[in-house]
Write a structure and sequence with these properties.
The structure holds two protein chains of two kinds.
Chain A lengths: L1 E9 L3 H9 L1 H7 L6 E6 L6 E8 L5 E12 L3 E8 L11 E9 L4 E10 L12 H14 L8
Antiparallel strand pairs in A: 1-7, 2-3, 3-4, 4-5, 5-6, 6-7
Helix pairs in contact in A: 1-2
Chain B lengths: L3 H8 L2 H13 L2 E2 H5 L6 H13 L3 E6 L2 E6 L1 H10 L3 H18 L6
Antiparallel strand pairs in B: 1-3, 2-3
Classes of the chains: A alpha+beta, B alpha+beta.
Amino acid sequence: MTDIRIEREFSVSAERLFAAVTQRAEAVLWWGPEGFKVTNDQLNMTTTGPWFVHMISPEGKNYKVSGHVTHVDAPRSIGFTWAWHDTETDKRGEESHVTMSVIETMTGARLIIEHRDLGDNETGAGHERGWASTLASLAKFLNQNDLSKEKI
Amino acid sequence: MMILTNAFAALSDDTRFAVVERLMKEGELPAGKLLEGVELSAPAMSRHLKVLRKAGLINQRVAGTQRLYSVRPEAMKAIVDWTMDHRMFWEASLDRLEAHLALEKEPEE
């Protein structure tokens, strides 16, 4: 089991951040790493119910995730279930849970993403312990080296 | 051009995995520095570094009497592109959210 907790500070109000996270029009703009495009979605996270997103990577690889929005407490938090679909069989994989919380801070708002109950087979290459942290440092490394994204 | 299977084969060794992780965290390091804190002879470390170099994971640069090693960003990117990790997914998505929210703000100066 791997639990992921990610925090990020934003210099906008909690309400503004919550809207950008939960409203479909904005969510489609930022879901997925740089270069990914949302090709089909139900990303309205403002009400409980089913959600899904289909994405395509810059290399043309398709990704599909789906789940159920289990709670919405505007403008503080949302919770939803999450499972990748197999690219070939479309079989829905092991389910995990995501909570996104918005907390007001002195300078704006903080978004906390907690991704829980991840099976060992959930991280792609992640049969080896330590992959998650390694990939986190990879992401940082790539950001520093400007390879994974264009600086705005 | 890096072959991913070679990269993963090279990384399947704990020592080499640790070397790459350390180079990612600390940047370019001389071989001597990589020996610090590990129970390994210089020739053994040198062999590991050679494997990593042949797999395309690290670069070697000679500066005076020192050999300096660093991670090849292209190699790391190839690995990231191949896999899809949840942390990576969210971190990368948040980078875009940050950029999106920054767009609507007035320039700082």
